Each structure stands twice: as structure tokens, then as C-alpha cells.
Amino acid sequence: MDYNKFFSDDVPFFLGSPVREIFRAVDLSSIYSFAGGYPDAATFPVEEIKRLSSLVLEKYGSKALQYSGTQGIPELREVIARRYGVPVENVLVTTSSQQGIDVCSRIMLNPGDVVLTTAPTYLGALQSFLSYRAKVVTFGQLNGDGSARDSNPLRESKESDFFADSQKNPTSFDPTAKAVPPLPCRGRHAPEGVTVPRRTVSAPNPKFCYVIPDFQNPSGETMSLEERQELVQMAREMDFIIVEDAPYRELRYSGEPVPTIYSLAPERTLHLGSFSKIFAPGFRLGWIIGPEPLLEQIYKCKQSLDLCPPVLNQYVAAEFMGSGALDANLRKSIDLYRGKRDLMLSLLEKYMPSGVTWTHPEGGLFLFVTLPEHIDTVALYSKALSTGVAYVAGSFFYPDGSHRNTMRLNFSYLDTSRMEPGIKLLADLLKETD
Ligand SMILES: Cc1ncc(COP(=O)(O)O)c(C=O)c1O
């Protein structure tokens, strides 16, 4: 039977993630995996969750198993509002921050609308933007060698960094393919009339700019206060919304916190938070902090998606956050991850051949490696897997599929004792490829 005639015109724009394909194809526990963005399972407060689940059922009974408001239960909205110092009206609970990204896209994007984001950027966000047939326009966040830029990347982005017209070439990723996975917005031309950045845009302006300012996925880099201020200034002048995706913000291992973009521009920022990296991703809970008129549309939009976020999970998360248990657990997680980050950095220093550089994140779960130009991490991937080591090719985070000499490495998931043999294997593979 041919099912194609049943599909909507949107279906070709639903791109499969190569990262998810890796998970489907390979049993990652059997190899040295630096691929996924999984937290270390040791950070999951299993005993506390057992205790709080009973407590919640005692305290709330069947209410904890009933449907609840689309905006989230009041108890959870209140503890989130208290923690981040905002009125409860500005908080909406989501079924994780992936849903947060998607509902922001859904309420703002028409086909052909421009979304501004960094290159590289989070793949799951690109999937969402493209499913609404947006044009994704990027500005650089890293220098060619993978180090962070000294000056503001927004000021420096060039027309040649842009790609356009996502309508023409829908396709799906194949992480093991030899050819560049042709994301649908390849090409080197900005949409007609658009020269980003700086106030020379005649049409169409970006609807919103999507950034991960703290310990970005995939680069691990953090936007400075000046970069955040400049982005806000640009958003005010060009009149676009900022979607600030901050699932890693509370996982800082060194350096000083930088104010959120929301705190700089609460009138035009949707700040996305998540319990996934600070509690348990299986809970599928997150939140959006933002202006009430935007949250009101998201509230309506979400009614057709999930009616309400998982209710029992919300009660447990509210107790966990409200009682101070989250902070205690965070302190342990931060100590663990700081050690893992430092170990990964020292192993890269010890084993990587010359010509390889990497970022030095102050938090989060990832760092980004840049290899000599001639090494193609997409082409190398099957060999890496058969050798027993996994990474994510960096080009998957560039909407134009460029930067094939880069890779994202996760340092949170793998057991400390397995990191050295894993990095050594990867370094040996790169030396052979040299
Ligand atoms: C930047 C970013 N945003 C959103 C998500 C989605 O997280 P969740 O839906 O589990 O909250 C991830 C997951 O890795 C991410 O890296």
C-alpha cells in the first residue's frame, strides 16, 4: 500500500535527527560513547523520588493522578516563580524544553519566516524550525579553530554565513552517509533583502532569535554579558523576540554566572528551563518564563498537544524543587561533572594529535572539537563505531552541513573509568586518519 498520499505537505520537513539514529542503530552501553547528551545516571535521585512519590500520593491522593491545568499545577509554577524571582503569571510548565522550543515556533512561525540562530546550534531546535518551514539564518559563534570568538559574533556575521530557502530541498539525515547530509536550507544566499546583523534588514525581519547562552549544545560556549546586551539591543531595534534556551544554566563548574537574557529584556524574551539535566530527563518536565500575552497563546496551543504536563511528575518535581532537595542534588551533580569535564580536558591534552583543538566549557555537558581540515567526521563515523567509540559529527549542528572537520563530545555520561580508553581510541583513530 502506498501511504504517501495520506501525508500532509509538512511531512517532508520532519527531519530525522542523526543523533537519534545513532541511538537506534547502536547499543551505546557496549561502546565508549561520547555521543548522547545523557546525564550521568548517578545524578538521578532515585531514593528521593521513591520517597516523594509516596509523600505526594499521601498528600494529594487522586488529585495527583487526575488531569490538571494546561499551564501546570499551581504548586510547581509557584516554586519555579520563587526560584527565578518572577510573578507566577509569567511561568508556564511544559512537557520538557523540547516542547518549549516547539510551542514557541508554533505560535510564531509561518512558512518562510526567518529564525535567527547561532552556527552551530541545537539540532532539536533546527528540527522544530524546519518543520514549520522557517528560513534559518545563522551567525557564527566559534572561530574556525573551534575557539570562542573574542568579539561579538553578531557584529561579525557575514552574508556568506547565511543560507536560505528551506522549502526546496527537504530531506532526512543519514549519520553514516558519505555525502553531506543535505539539510534543506543549504545554499549561500540570504533571503531577499536580509543582511543580518545590524539594522540593514528591509524584509523580512527575523520573527525570533534562538540562542543557548549558557554552555551551549554543541559548543559548550557561554555568551558574554556584552554579547547578550548586544543581542537585546538588536532585538529591540529590529523588533524580534528572543528564545533563550537554558537547560544547562544551573550546571556551572567554574567562572561567574552571567545574567540571563530574560533579566535584560523580560518584555521580549521567552526563557526555557528544563528538569532534564538537573533532575531526571525521564520526567519530561520543563518551563517557560515569559510575557503573559505570549504565554497565553502558548497555553492555547499546548491544549491540542498534551492537555497538561504529567501531573504526578509535576507534584514530585514541585516537592523536590521546593524542599531544597534539588539544590542539594545539584551540588553533587556539579562536583561530579566538574571532575568529568576536567578529566576529559586532560585526556584530550594527553592523547590528541597536534592540529586538534577543543573548547573549554565552564559548564554543561559538551565540548566541541575541531580537527584538521582534511578529516571528515561524517565519513569517519562508521569506522569509529566499529572501533568501539561514538561521537556526534559537528556538521549536524550547522544547518548548511558545513564544518565536517568538527565533532561534539559529551563528558557527562560515560563512567569516569571508561573515559581514558575511549579518548585514547578516538585519538588513535584520528592519528591513523592523519
Ligand atoms: C539546548 C537544548 N534544548 C533543549 C533540549 C531538550 O531537552 P528536554 O526536552 O529534555 O528538556 C536539549 C536536550 O539535549 C538541549 O540540548
Question: Could you name the key traits of this structure?
Answer:
434 residues; alpha/beta; Aspartate Aminotransferase, domain 2; seven-stranded mixed beta sheet; four-stranded antiparallel beta sheet; 13 helices; 13 strands; 35% helix; globular; binds pyridoxal-5'-phosphate
Describe this structure in words.
The protein has 434 residues and is α/β, with parallel strands linked by helices. The protein has a single domain, classed as Aspartate Aminotransferase, domain 2, CATH 3.40.640. The chain is built from 13 helices and 13 strands. The strands form three sheets. It has a seven-stranded mixed beta sheet with strand order 2-8-7-6-5-3-4, with helices on both faces. The longest helix has 27 residues. The structure holds pyridoxal-5'-phosphate.
Topology:
Layout: H1 18-25, E1 32-33, H2 46-60, H3 74-84, E2 91-94, H4 97-108, E3 114-119, H5 123-131, E4 135-140, H6 153-156, E5 206-211, H7 225-238, E6 241-245, H8 261-264, E7 269-274, E8 286-289, H9 292-303, H10 311-322, H11 325-351, E9 357-358, E10 366-370, H12 381-387, E11 389-390, E12 392-393, E13 406-410, H13 416-433
Helix pairs in contact: 2-10, 3-10, 4-5, 4-9, 11-13
